[in-house]
Structure formats: structure tokens, C-alpha cells
Amino acid sequence: MFSLKNGRLRRLLAGAAGAAAVVGAFAVVGPANAATQDSAADRAPKPTIVLEHGAFADGSSWDGVIAKLRRDGYPVVAAANPLRGPASDAASLRSLVDHLKGPVVLVGHSYGGSVISEAAVGEPRVKALVYVAAFLPAPGESALQLTNRFPGSTLPGTLDQVPFTTADGSAGTDLYIQQDKFRAQFAADVPADRAALAAASQRPVAQAALTEKATTAAWQTVPSWDIVTTEDLNIPAAAQRFMAERAHARTTEVAASHSVAVSHPDLVAGVVEKAARATR
Fold first, then answer.
1. 8 Å CB contact between 213 and 138
2. DSSP designation for 86
3. How confident is the model over 17-32, as a mean pLDDT?
4. Percent of the chain, pLDDT > 90?
5. What is the pLDDT of residue 263?
6. Over the range 3-28, which residues count as b (16 or more CB within 10 Å of their CB) and which as e?
7. Strand 205-206 versus strand 171-177 pairing type
8. What is the pLDDT of residue 42?
9. What's the rounded Cα separation, in Å, for the pair 114 and 86?
């Protein structure tokens, strides 16, 4: 038998005990560190959600989406879209993004998709793009060109053209949807009283904005999500699918009108939150 008085044996046992203590310490510290990292991720600030409305709408079209996002703890801003042209509207949106702090998720509805596609270029704090029944033009393409590429839009026959003159004397044409045709064309799955309010408060888009060609496309480099509305009479579903597939966007399809943010606010907010979680 070995005696504990043997100095060499005592040193071996002491070394083994020390090694066991070190292993045990790592066994405890490892999971604790992982838990700390998870907790830190949970505490990371949520990105600000910036919502860009499209033609024939205004910021109130996002009301239901905003309510859901705020309940879930997201800071939200519904930007006022001038609806004058993708380049100038993108500059306006970029000014707002530059004013905000922290990461941002840009969400664009309809023509607003053209705007966020340009506004996000060169903006490293824009972590994700969400397109809602929207245009995702490539450089050289316009909204009107993409709409006409596929059959199904009945928008032209519902439009009311209103000439305008700017302060510098240049002339243009604003486009509205005729109020008595608004619900059937734009918001068929929205309650009639709500659609009537939207028809009365719609903001016109400059005709030139729909023919202005994109010069850049942020969806080529920024992760993108897309909601395709299969009962849309403004932007045909086939056009929406084409753009979403080309952008490699994570796509959700829903049987909804063009006014999906009003008729399905929880679905829209859910997709936005998926995009926001992917940025953290």
C-alpha cells in the first residue's frame, strides 16, 4: 500500500484535486456565461420601425400596425411621404432616418417601396427592409413600368387627374382615386365607413413620380421581407411575386386588397417584427 507520507504521492493527489477544481469551475462558468449572453441579447435596444405610406394614403393607414408594434415595445415613426418622386421622397425619408438613434427597419407600402429602396442605400443603420404590397424597382425601372409588365391592375380607370402649378411656375398633375371607386379599387376588404374616411383623406401622388426611374436598389444588399397581396387591384400579385423573388425576400402571401395594413394589421406587424428580430 502507498502511504500518504510519500511526498511524491501527495503532490500527485494535490495536482489531481486542483485539475478537478478547474474542470468544475469551467462547468459552472460556461453555462453562466451563455445565460449572460442571452440576457444581454434580450436587453439589446429594439430597432426603430419607420413606416412609409404610399400613394392615395397617409400615415393613418398604419394605425393598426403602429398599435401592435407599440404594444410589443417597438419605437415607431410613421413618416409623411411627400409623394413627389422617388429621389426627392427618399431624401426626405433619409433626413428622418439620420435624425433617429440606433438601428432602423424601413417599411414601405405600395409606392413607398420605391422610396425605401432608395433611402436605405448608404445607410448602415438600416438593418432590414419590409415591403408591403409594394414596388421593389431595380435601377432603370419605374413603378408604372412594373405595374404594366403584368396584367391585372384596374387603377388607371379609377383615377382623377388634377393639374397643379408649383411656386416656381412648373406644371404637373396630381392623381387621386375617385372617391366613389376608392373602396372597390383600393380597400375592398376594409369596412365601408373606414374606407370612406380613407377615400376622403387620401393624399395624391404626382403622376411623374410613377414614371420616374429608380437609380439604386437597397434590396440588393439589405435583408428584405415582402408581403404579397393576392387580391390586389393596384399592383398585380404576379408583379409583386416577381419583385419579391428577384430580391430574394422572405415572402408572406395573404388574400387581401392593396390596403392590407388596414385590413390585416396584426399580420403586417408580425412580419415587421420578424424582420426586426433578425437584426438583433
1. no
2. H
3. 40
4. 81
5. 98
6. eeeeeeeeeeeeeeeeeeeeeeeeee
7. antiparallel
8. 58
9. 6
Is 226 within 8 Å of 247 (Cβ atoms)? yes
Alpha-carbon gap, residue 266 to 18, rounded angstroms? 57
Give the closest residue to 232 by CA, choosing from 266, 212, 253, 257: 257
Q: Which of 253, 259, 207, 263 lies closest to 230, judged by CA?
A: 253
| Phi, psi values for residue 130, rounded to 5° | -125, 125
Q: How far apart are CA 219 and CA 87, in angstroms?
A: 16
Residue that is written with C-alpha cell 397617409 in the block:
58
With bands split at pLDDT 50, 70 and 90, how would you rate the model's confidence at 203?
very high
Helical segments of 140-249, H only: 143-148, 179-186, 192-201, 207-211, 237-246
Beta bridge partners of 165: 171
- Tell me: the pLDDT tens digits for 143-167? 999 999 999 999 999 999 999 998 8
> Which domains can be identified in the chain, with CATH numbers?
44-278 (3.40.50.1820)
Q: Scan for cell 398599435, then name that residue.
A: 67
Closest residue by Cα to residue 198 from 186, 214, 209, 207: 186
Q: Are 249 and 226 in contact (CB under 8 A)?
A: yes
Determine phi and psi for 131, rounding to 5 degrees.
Answer: -105, 130
pLDDT at 28 over 70: no
